[in-house]
Design a protein that fits this description.
By secondary structure, the chain is mainly β. The protein contains no helices and three strands. Helices cover 0% and strands 55% of the residues. It has a three-stranded antiparallel beta sheet, with no helix packed on it.
Length: 51
């Protein structure tokens, strides 16, 4: 039986914290069914809102 595995990473730049970190989210699906989600905060090294 063949299975498919997908991962999706995305930044939630519209939800910065006071320490200027933003959440990076990961979503894992197997055969089209959601299996896992995770969130980790990272510090961005570029501007969120260019002038």
């Amino acid at each position: 039986m063949k299975s498919t595995f997908r991962t999706l990473f995305y930044l939630k730049k519209n939800q910065p914290r006071k320490d200027k970190t933003v959440p990076i989210m990961v979503k894992v699906t197997v055969n089209g069914n959601p299996q896992s989600r995770a969130k980790q905060y990272i510090l961005l090294h570029w501007r969120l809102h260019p002038r």
